[in-house]
């Protein structure tokens, strides 16, 4: 698969602060990658490096075949960016704002109306941005980032402050672009919503990349237990070891539920016993480790190794 972004041993220092410490990764075409980490982990710094807004202290960065820190950066036209706090000139209308950005990106202004339609802002296109709600400004920000059909889209905390319906349509638009082969890098604290959206997750802590992989890969590495929740009849609840066998880490959750923390090795066996003929199980749920849990695990492991 072709990479659009290559980050090799990148270090970025601001005076004494080491914002990015020897980070390497590459981003392929047609993938959505989530960049997660606490405040100050280095997420925005990485995006600014990819945009060529700042230069690495050492290491190399290539975006769409170019060095973003080199003066003339042709690839920037194919790079979309939605900053963390998007701010526009309050006196311009939505249409004027987007036309302004289209000229900056050397895109025809005919691109403006379809984009306003796409992000659902046509009805407010002639209103001043100063009158827009937070969600409307964010959608205008997305439209600006989508100008020129970017091949790399960098979204810094894009859904903060959006209601669930807006989030949904936001991700739909981004997914469409990814489907046409774009690379999408998405930084966020909202781990639950990333779980379904990102094919791959990069976890940063204090400038260091502490984990990088698909959710399945991270689950395999972390070896966190899968939670198996069984709805059990009254009789079954009274004699769990009899039908479940010698399983470690089980507990009663309430009057009709048993929860088991099953390791990767024991998971299938637990399910087999729970679904055996005669087992008093009425229903079951299998809950793999969430991104929240994986994130906490990798952060704690790295902190412990310091
Ligand atoms: N221009 C700058 N001058 C000095 N320090 C900076 C500068 N930009 C970033 N830093 C520092 O670099 C570190 C990483 O900051 P960065 O903005 O990349 O974090 P982040 O992961 O995006 O955090 P957040 O989730 O809060 O947006 C922080 O300690 C920050 O204070």
Automatic annotation (TrEMBL):
It comes from the Bacteria. Residues 5-231 form the ABC transporter domain. Keywords: ATP-binding, Nucleotide-binding, Transport. PROSITE patterns: ABC_TRANSPORTER_1, ABC_TRANSPORTER_2. GO terms for molecular function: ATP binding; ATP hydrolysis activity. The keyword ATP-binding applies. Gene3D superfamilies: P-loop containing nucleotide triphosphate hydrolases. InterPro entries: AAA+_ATPase, ABC_transporter-like_ATP-bd, ABC_transporter-like_CS, ABC_Transporter_VariousFunc, P-loop_NTPase. Signal peptide: none annotated. PANTHER family: ABC TRANSPORTER ATP-BINDING PROTEIN ALBC-RELATED. Belongs to the ABC transporter superfamily. This is Cu-processing system ATP-binding protein. The lineage of its organism: Bacteria, Pseudomonadati, Pseudomonadota, Alphaproteobacteria, Hyphomicrobiales.
């Amino acid at each position: 698969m072709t990479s659009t972004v290559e980050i090799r041993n990148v270090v970025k220092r601001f005076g004494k602060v080491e914002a990015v410490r020897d980070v390497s990764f590459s981003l392929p075409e047609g993938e959505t990658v989530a960049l997660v980490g606490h405040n100050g982990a280095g997420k925005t710094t990485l995006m600014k490096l990819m945009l060529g807004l700042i230069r690495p202290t050492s290491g190399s960065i290539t975006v769409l075949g170019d060095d973003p820190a080199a003066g003339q950066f042709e690839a920037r036209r194919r790079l979309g960016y939605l900053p963390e706090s998007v701010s526009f000139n309050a006196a311009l209308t939505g249409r004027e704002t987007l036309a302004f950005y289209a000229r900056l990106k050397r895109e025809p202004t005919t691109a403006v109306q379809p984009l306003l339609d796409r992000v659902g802002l046509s009805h407010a296109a002639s209103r001043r941005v100063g009158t827009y709600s937070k969600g409307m400004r964010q959608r205008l920000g997305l439209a600006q980032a989508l100008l020129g059909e970017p091949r790399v889209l960098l979204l810094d905390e894009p859904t903060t402050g959006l209601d669930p319906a807006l989030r949904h349509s936001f991700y739909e638009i981004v997914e469409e672009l990814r489907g046409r082969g774009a690379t999408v890098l998405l930084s966020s604290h909202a781990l639950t919503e990333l779980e379904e959206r990102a094919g791959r997750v990069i976890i940063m802590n204090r400038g260091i990349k502490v984990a990088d992989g698909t959710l399945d890969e991270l689950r395999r590495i972390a070896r966190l237990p899968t939670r198996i929740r069984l709805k059990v009849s009254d009789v079954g609840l009274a004699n769990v070891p009899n039908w479940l066998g010698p399983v470690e880490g089980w507990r009663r959750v309430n009057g009709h539920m048993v929860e088991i923390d099953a390791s990767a090795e024991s998971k299938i066996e637990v399910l087999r016993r729970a679904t055996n003929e005669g087992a008093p199980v009425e229903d079951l749920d299998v809950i793999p480790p969430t991104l929240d849990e994986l994130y906490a695990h990798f952060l704690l492991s790295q902190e412990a190794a310091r």
